[in-house]
Amino acid sequence: MSDTPPDRLATNPGSPFYDAELLERGVGIRFKGVEKTNVDEYCVSEGWVRVTAGKTMDRKGNPMTIKLQGEVVPYFRDIADAGS
């Protein structure tokens, strides 16, 4: 397994970018230099993240998300914890 997170990853099992094995390993996101814990999907090459918008739900019962533009830095939590 690579020590570099993928360019794009989603937490929604219905997404083509969902990968349960990577999510179990633990992926952290720094967005514009700030640690984010509510990221649903990210794309490094396009420079955006989707974050949940509070407790708001769409008509299918999924959390509403907001797409934010900026610098995205993903990392694996197990590597970050080992380095500390």
Overall description:
The protein is an alpha+beta fold and 84 residues long. The protein contains 2 helices and 7 strands. A 4-stranded antiparallel sheet has the order 1-4-5-6, with no helix packed on it. A 3-stranded antiparallel sheet has the order 3-2-7. It is globular, with a radius of gyration of 13 Å. The two termini are 21 Å apart. The mean pLDDT is 90.
Key words describing this protein structure:
84 residues, alpha+beta, 3-stranded antiparallel β-sheet
What fraction strand?
over 45%
Radius of gyration: 13 Å
| Structural class by helix and strand composition | alpha+beta
Sum up the overall morphology in one term: globular
Please count the beta strands (DSSP E, at least 2 residues each). Answer: 7
Number of helices: 2
User: What is the element string, with H for helices and E for strands?
Assistant: EHEEEEEEH
Biggest beta-sheet profile: 4 strands, antiparallel
Helix content bin: 10-25%
Q: N- to C-terminal separation?
A: 21 Å
Average pLDDT over all residues: 90
Any low-confidence stretches, pLDDT <50, length ≥5? Answer: none
- The strand line-up of the biggest sheet is 1-4-5-6
Question: Would you kindly provide a brief summary of this structure?
Answer:
The chain is 15% helix and 45% strand.
